[in-house]
Write a structure and sequence with these properties.
- This protein is α+β, with helices and mostly antiparallel strands.
- The chain folds into 2 domains: 254 residues, no CATH class; 93 residues, PDZ domain (Pdz3 Domain).
- 53% of the residues lie in helices and 19% in strands.
- The chain is built from 10 helices and 12 strands.
- The strands form 5 sheets. The protein has a 4-stranded antiparallel β-sheet, covered by helices on one side.
- The radius of gyration is 23 Å and the shape is globular.
- The two termini are 23 Å apart.
Length: 349
């Protein structure tokens, strides 16, 4: 069952990503030769309007193949025949549609159970927060200038800034106490386990029911939260705060979805549904961010060349660009193999 659910989530995310490329390609008059879900041999396919629509055997990935996408073909309807801004819109549409999907799914969650306010439920005695006068019931609004709108942003800030706090960096915390905005300078301390904290806690389950306008507003904050989390995780990975063994690929994600599904069953179908939506938001926001990274073979890498073309008003040599993207693709495939091996090792060893 968990594999089926994972495939449904992956398929939804991929098809929306490729749909972004597809719709903007059609809008700009680019001929789409094939729109497919999955990879490998075709299981089902049909032609309509000059495009082959396919469902392929391997349930990973998908594609929106455009005429002249590799820049070897020229002429009316080819990708390369369109203006640089048209091509930028086509490439950027995939990640943007991932963020749109994340927003739509967030509307369902926020509309159903509300949002987690950054309200403190407990302040531990003997820790910096209590000594500064912060109390349970106070609302955190900023940490070191970063606006806080969800409780999860507090715990994430502490998690992703452990190295700085270990070196004695203080936190400027802005909070609301009895309707009055106050500011405290706090120096995190070791809680005995090597983790530096300021002695506050709340709960993601402490949610506030949202009205219609709040649903729309906090759904955007929800998407921003996951985008920020993805960037912070990448930064931590590059700084050595996260090992490659801690990174999960498709196999690890399937296992995580399965565990979440099994744990949620005791709470009923409604919470299973909400947890699966939450995972879908995480994955689609993650895919949107990862695809926008300026790396060869990714949408972000292709956008780099298109932006250079817009600035220089001259196209980068297609052959050179193709070689760079191919090299990037090989490195990405190698990374996928390593991550998949680690996923399998963590499950069976």
């Amino acid at each position: 069952m968990k594999i089926l659910i994972a495939l449904l989530i992956f398929s939804l995310i991929v098809i929306i990503h490729e749909l972004g490329h597809f719709l903007l390609a059609k809008w700009n008059g680019v001929v789409v030769t094939e729109f497919s879900l999955g990879m490998g041999p075709r299981i089902i396919s049909f032609d309509k309007g000059g495009t082959k629509y396919s469902w392929k055997l391997l349930p990973f990935g998908g594609s929106c193949m455009m005429l002249g996408e590799d820049m070897e073909e020229e002429g009316e309807g080819t990708f390369g025949s369109k203006s640089v801004w048209a091509r930028i819109s086509v490439i950027a549409a995939g990640p943007i549609f991932n963020f749109i999907l994340a927003y739509v799914l967030s509307v369902f969650i926020i509309g159903s159970i509300g949002f987690d306010q950054p309200v403190l439920l407990n302040v531990s005695e003997g820790y910096p927060a209590a000594e500064a006068g912060i109390q349970a019931g106070d609302t955190i609004t900023k940490i070191n200038g970063k606006t806080i709108r969800l409780y999860r942003e507090i715990s994430n800030y502490v998690t992703f800034h452990q190295k700085e706090m270990q070196k004695g960096k203080t936190l400027q915390v802005q909070y609301v106490h009895d309707g009055e905005t106050k500011v405290a300078e706090l120096t995190p301390v070791d809680n005995g386990s090597g983790r530096y904290v300021i002695g506050i806690s709340g709960s993601t389950n402490n949610r506030t029911k949202a009205n219609s306008l709040q649903v729309l507003k906090y759904s955007a904050y929800e998407v921003k939260y996951w985008i920020d989390t993805t960037f912070d995780s990448l930064k931590m990975l590059l700084q050595g705060g996260v090992k490659l063994d801690d990174v999960s690929g498709p196999v690890g994600v399937v296992d995580m979805i399965g565990d979440t599904y099994e744990e949620s069953q005791a709470d009923g179908a409604f919470y299973v549904w909400l947890n699966m939506l939450n995972i879908a938001i995480l994955l689609t926001a993650n895919l949107g961010v990862m695809n926008l990274l300026p790396l060869p073979a990714l949408d972000g890498g292709r956008l780099v060349f298109l932006i250079l073309e817009a600035i220089r008003r001259k196209r980068v040599n297609p052959e050179t660009e193709a070689k760079i993207h191919f090299a990037g693709l090989m490195l990405l495939l190698l990374l996928m193999v390593v991550v998949m091996f680690n996923d399998i090792k963590k499950i069976f060893l």
